Amino acid sequence: MVKPLKTRVKRKNGAAVSVKVAAALWSLVRGSFQFLLSLAFVVLLFGGVFAYAVNSPTFGLEEVRVLNAGTLTNRQAFEFCELRPGENLINLDLVNVQQVIKRKHPEFKEVRVKRVLPNRVEVVLKRRTPSAQVDFGRFVQIDKDMVLLPGSSASPFKNLTVIEGVKTPKPGLFVGVTVSDPNAKKAVKLSEILKSSDVLKGHSLNKIDVRDPNNVSLIVDGDVEIRIGGGHFIERLKILDQTLKTVGLDRAKIKYIDLRFDDVVIGPR
């Protein structure tokens, strides 16, 4: 008699569990349906707004502003970016505009393009800063990334260190070409080290000669030669700093300073 009673209890418990599971499933289905309905409404709403935006003359491009590129008229700014008046601003590919500008004007290190609703594009440019100039027969400015900058001159640019002994890049002397000669990299590295230190404070670094990469020379204050060798620049510049604090760099008395040996050699005039 006990066994049939236990069986009936199990059936009641199983039925109760089944009702709970069914209720949970119905709640889940109902919640999912409401979510999908809401999502469909949002998608339709967004689609309608987007369709209106891409077809509305309200968002037709009317103005392009280019910052840090001199004074450009609106027409010149459109040409600069290769854009057309009336293009839809919402549908405009800003990345493509950025790439067009970088391709046409590699002298700019950074290019940022943004929409300004309802009908304007703004372009913010950052120019490459000259780090030195290379003597290729004509003097051409380069930045610290070794990129050739616009403009060349038969005579040196003022207040910019000259680098001698660099091979002409294979593509030619065109704006945006990167100089790959390791001698040039060595010279630019040395120039950057000197700029960030006070070793030649109060003196002008006129030239870095890398024609012999194992015997690099600096020309300071017009005609004082500092022979620095082919490496260990930081250590040798520390020695130069100590030497100049003791001796002083007097171009009337000193012809050269040689740092390539254990003892510093100073050549008098």
What does this structure look like?
By secondary structure, the protein is α/β, with parallel strands linked by helices. The protein folds into 3 domains: 1-55; 57-127, membrane protein fhac (Ubiquitin-like (UB roll)), CATH 3.10.20; 132-268, 3-Layer(aba) Sandwich (Rossmann fold). Helices cover 38% and strands 24% of the residues. It contains 5 helices and 12 strands. It has helices spanning 2-55, 74-81, 94-104, 182-196, 233-246, and strands at residues 63-67, 108-116, 120-127, 132-135, 139-142, 148-153, 162-164, 205-209, 216-220, 224-229, 254-258, 265-268. The strands form 2 sheets. A 9-stranded mixed sheet has the order 6-5-4-7-8-9-10-11-12, with helices on one face. Strand 4 and strand 5 (139-142) form a beta hairpin. 17% of the residues are buried. Residues 1-10 have low confidence and may be disordered.
Strand order in the largest sheet: 6-5-4-7-8-9-10-11-12
The Rg value, from CA coordinates, equals 35 Å
Number of strands: 12
Low-confidence stretches: 1-10
Helix content: 25-40%
Q: Supply the helix-strand structural class.
A: alpha/beta
**Number of helical elements:** 5
Number of domains: 3
Question: Can you name the CATH architecture of the largest domain?
Answer: 3-Layer(aba) Sandwich
Largest sheet: 9 strands, mixed
Give the overall shape, derived from the CA principal axes.
elongated
Strand content: 15-25%
Q: What's the mean pLDDT score?
A: 86
Oligomer: single chain
Order of secondary-structure elements: HEHHEEEEEEHEEEHEE
Would you tell me which CATH topology of the largest domain applies? Answer: Rossmann fold
